Structures are given as C-alpha cells and as structure tokens.
Amino acid sequence: MLSKKLEKALNDQVRIEAASSQVYLSMASWAEGKGLEGIANFMYAQSDEERMHMLKLIKFINERGGNAHISELKAPKNDFGTFQKMFNELLEHEIFVSDSINELVHVTLEEKDYATHNFLQWYVAEQIEEEALARNILDKINLIGNDKGGLYLFDRDIQQITANSAAITPKE
Ligand code: FEO
C-alpha cells in the first residue's frame, strides 16, 4: 500500500510525464509545419514515449492501492524559434525530468517503500538514455548551426537516431 505522501509524489510525476508528452507533441507539430519530417517524426515518437511513461506510473499507482489522478495541463507553447533552441529545450526538459525522478526516488527511501524504489529504477535508467540522446542531438545541431543544407541532411539522419533509440530504450 502506498503512503499518502508517496501517492502524491507519484501523481506529481504522472503530471510531469503528461506535460512532457504535450510539449514534445507541440515541438513535433512545429517541426512538421517547417517541412522537417524527420525531426517531426522523432518528436512525435518522443511524445508517445512520454505518454507510455505516464501510463506505466498510472497503472503502478492503481495496482498498489492508490488512486492515480489525471490533472489539467498548461498548454505548451507552439513556436520554438529555431531548431537549435528547440533541441536545447528538449535537453533542459529532460534534465528537469531526471531531477524530478531523483526526488521521487528520495521519497521512496524516506517512506521505506522498497517496492516503489525498485519500480522507479526503470525510470532512472530511462532518464540516462533520454539525456544522452538529447545531448547527442544537440551537439549535432550546434555543429550545423543555421546551415540549411546541414539541417536537411540532419532531418534525414535523425530517422536513424529515432530507430536506434527505440532499440536501446529499456523495455517494460
Ligand atoms: Fe519521461 Fe523524457 O522523461
């Protein structure tokens, strides 16, 4: 049985994962509008992953005798300026999510809930992958800068990154 404190902390994480999914969906749509299909598909896939992270938490809370709550979300912005800025935001957002997972793990130790602690290790591993991927992409985008030809090639190459990241994502 989850403690009230941990139930609340897990529900806060449900909201963070849901908000992440919305932010990445907005990034996908923005990229699609700019005609960069590879980047758009990458962000659509990221959005789907965040929804999966959210669902996994919802099911866990309910299975452990808690009540998962679906909250209202703030609308994400729908203009990201440049691709460099957008991928910078992606990395910053993932660092924020990693911090929130770390806090959550901390609460499990305070509450001596080792089952939830164990469950959250999947998220800890996932965040290492997500941050590494975001850093890798940002490094490439920073090299390209504002070069249109470079961006065109990157848009093609990111399809491969999308396929590889799906292959290395920890399985349920
Ligand atoms: Fe669910 Fe990208 O963190």
From TrEMBL:
Pfam families: Ferritin (PF00210). GO terms for cellular component: cytosol. Belongs to the ferritin family. Prokaryotic subfamily. May alleviate iron toxicity in the presence of oxygen. Iron-storage protein. It catalyses: 4 Fe(2+) + O2 + 6 H2O = 4 iron(III) oxide-hydroxide + 12 H(+). Its main location: cytoplasm. It comes from Arenibacter nanhaiticus. The lineage of its organism: Bacteria, Pseudomonadati, Bacteroidota, Flavobacteriia, Flavobacteriales. It comes from the Bacteria. This is Ferritin. SUPFAM superfamilies: Ferritin-like. Fe cation binds at E17, E50, H53, E94, Q127. Gene3D superfamilies: 1.20.1260.10. The keyword NADP does not apply. GO terms for biological process: intracellular iron ion homeostasis; iron ion transport. Keywords: Cytoplasm, Iron, Iron storage, Metal-binding, Oxidoreductase. CDD domains: Nonheme_Ferritin. Its EC number is 1.16.3.2. Residues 1-145 form the Ferritin-like diiron domain. GO terms for molecular function: ferric iron binding; ferrous iron binding; ferroxidase activity; identical protein binding. It is found in: Cytoplasm.
